[in-house]
Amino acid sequence: MKGAPTYTEQELVGLLKQRTQKAFSYLYDHYAPTLNGIILGIIQDHEVAGDVLQEVFVKIWRQIEQYDAAKGRLFTWMYNIARTTSIDMLRSRDWKNSHRNHSLTEDHAELPDRRTNYGEELGLRRIIQTLKDDHKILVELSYFQGYTQEEIAGMLNIPLGTVKTRIRAAIVLLRQQVKL
């Protein structure tokens, strides 16, 4: 009776690039638990993590030609795929949920006990609505929905420096209008 095959990393990569099913099964059997642990550390939902793990292995299968041993080990490459896929899943869920929430406009700003908040007393809602759309969305995401600048940059797919510059410009404009 013959034992389970073992491969060096170089042999395994070569077989994966040849689309050998046995090599892919070996890869899954030996790396799925570790990659699932990485995913669960980010997602923290077993059902969603299972879906992400499946997506990770599909990406590995489809993108194996892009793997370059000169840039790092196979596990490091797979780890990065698992990590970015998990983060992308979190961001897409957050983004979808944030769009389900109502926009913070004057129609929705009143508290349940009918008292207005300080922002309303100062008329900040009206002033924020006068900002350019680029600035308005950043102020809303940052100050009213609590996202970090890094998260906003990822969600909107714009450079972090651009997010910081636009938020700063929006704050300057708001200060000028509040002082008037």
What does this structure look like?
By secondary structure, the chain is mainly α. The chain is elongated, with a radius of gyration of 24 Å. It has 2 domains: 91 residues, RNA polymerase sigma factor, region 2, helix turn helix motif (Rna Polymerase Sigma Factor, Chain: A); 78 residues, Arc Repressor Mutant, subunit A. The termini are far apart. It contains 9 helices and no strands.
Condensed summary:
It contains 9 helices and no strands.
Chain-wise SSE layout:
Elements: H1 9-17, H2 21-43, H3 46-63, H4 74-100, H5 118-121, H6 124-129, H7 133-144, H8 149-156, H9 160-179
Structural descriptors:
Rna Polymerase Sigma Factor, Chain: A, Arc Repressor Mutant, subunit A, 2 domains, 0% strand, mainly alpha, 71% helix, 180 residues
Strand-residue fraction?
A: under 5%
Helical content stands at over 70%
Query: What's the shape?
Result: elongated
Order of helices and strands: HHHHHHHHH
CATH-defined fold name of the largest domain: Rna Polymerase Sigma Factor, Chain: A
Largest sheet: none
Q: State the domain count.
A: 2
- Mind telling me the CATH superfamily name of the largest domain? RNA polymerase sigma factor, region 2, helix turn helix motif
The appropriate CATH architecture of the largest domain is Orthogonal Bundle
Supply the helix-strand structural class.
mainly alpha
Number of strands: 0
Taking all residues together, what is the mean pLDDT? 79
Give the count of helical stretches. 9
